[in-house]
Write a structure and sequence with these properties.
5 helices, alpha+beta, 109 residues, Rossmann fold, four-stranded mixed β-sheet
Length: 109
């Protein structure tokens, strides 16, 4: 079940430490692998806590989540740096279990 507005705000404000601490680890792994650009797919991107530093480092980020309230927080966090938004009917039609997945965003800085 996707987060509602109230739970999305609480999750973003109080439970984002794993995402905050994971982004620098991924950036270090990418740097050691000499991958200085490219696409990072963030499944369950939520409010964009993880996606923001990845995009700021110059990577394209494809964020997927099924919670509209979390994705509204992502939009606020990235302040208009979302280059594409879609309801993704082709993805939803491929799997009956993904019928609630209604948003994909690609962000670039």
């Amino acid at each position: 079940m996707p987060y509602r507005d109230d739970l999305a705000r609480i999750h973003d404000a109080r439970f984002g430490e794993i995402a905050r601490s994971s982004a620098p680890v991924l950036l270090e792994v990418l740097e050691r692998a000499w991958l200085e650009e490219g696409l990072v797919i963030d499944l369950g991107c939520g409010s964009g806590i993880f996606a923001e530093p990845i995009a700021a480092a110059g990577y394209d980020v494809l964020g997927v989540d099924d919670s509209g309230p979390m994705l509204r927080l992502l939009h606020r966090r990235l302040r208009g740096r979302v280059s594409r938004e879609d309801d993704v009917p082709s993805i939803a039609s491929r799997s009956s279990s993904s019928a609630g997945r209604r948003w994909v965003s690609e962000t670039t800085l």
